[in-house]
Specification:
The chain is an alpha+beta fold. The protein has one domain: K homology (KH) domain (GMP Synthetase, Chain A, domain 3). It is 53% helix and 22% strand. It contains 4 helices and 3 strands. Strands 1-2-3 form a 3-stranded mixed sheet. A hairpin with a 5-residue loop joins strand 1 and strand 2. Helix 1 crosses helix 3. The N and C termini lie far apart (37 Å).
């Protein structure tokens, strides 16, 4: 059960991360990265971000690249939220494959 504080911080991180990834993927062209959910630990030290990547074929290599550059993403996030948060949580990124799962279920039902 998430507290109200965890939910507020998760929404703030989700909003700022989506803006960071929108600016970075605009340079790549043809790739869309959206932040579908963020879960924050009770002590606010770890944030797990779930990313939805289009096209999904490039998802694995993009998520590896993002996890490799997690420190620079955390730094950029810290610059954006420095007046709202005292300490920026450690970031880990995961693929959110719920859309692929929905497509698979739809194709099975047809």
């Amino acid at each position: 059960m998430e507290t109200t504080r965890q939910q507020k911080i998760a929404r703030l991180i989700q909003k700022e991360l989506s803006e960071i990834f929108r600016l970075q993927t605009a340079k790549m062209g043809g790739v869309l990265v959206s932040v579908s959910a963020v879960r924050v630990s009770p002590d606010l030290s770890i944030a797990r971000a779930y990313l939805s990547i289009f096209p999904s074929e490039k998802g694995k290599e993009i998520i590896e690249s993002i996890n490799h550059n997690a420190k620079s993403v955390r730094y950029e996030l810290a610059q954006r939220v420095r007046y709202q948060l005292r300490k920026t949580p450690e970031l880990t990124f995961f693929i959110d494959d719920s859309l692929d799962y929905i497509e698979h279920i739809d194709s099975l039902l047809k």
